[in-house]
Amino acid sequence: MSSSILPQEEVVDTIKAADNLIITGVTLLNDMLEDISASKKSGAEVIVVGLTVSMSPKTLFDRGASRTRTAFILCTRTSFWT
User: For a 10 Å CB count at each end of the chain, is N or C smaller?
Assistant: First the structure.
C-alpha cells in the first residue's frame, strides 16, 4: 500500500510545481503558511479552506493566502434535543 503523505524531501518540489495550493487553516497554527507562500511558483494561488478560516481571514491574507473558503453549520435548537 502506498502512502498518501509526501516524503519530506519531496514537499518543496511539489509546492513549486503546483498551479494552485489548497490548504487548511492549520498551516497557520503550525507556522507553515508563510513558508508555503514563499515556495509556490509565480502566479499560483494559496487557497485556505476550513471552518476556522472565518475567525482570522486578515491574518491569513497578511501571510500569503490568495483566497479563503469556509462553511458554517447551522443547528436549530430542536436538532440538539431530538
Answer: N
**Cell 436549530 belongs to residue:** 76
Classify each residue of 35-63 as buried b or exposed e, where b means 16 or more C-beta atoms within 10 Å of its C-beta: bbbebbeeebebebebeebeeeeeebeeb
Reduce the DSSP state of residue 53 to 3 states and report it. helix
SS3 category, 9 = helix
pLDDT in tens, 21-67: 999 888 878 888 888 889 999 999 999 998 878 777 888 889 888 99
Task: Say how many domains are in the chain.
Answer: 1
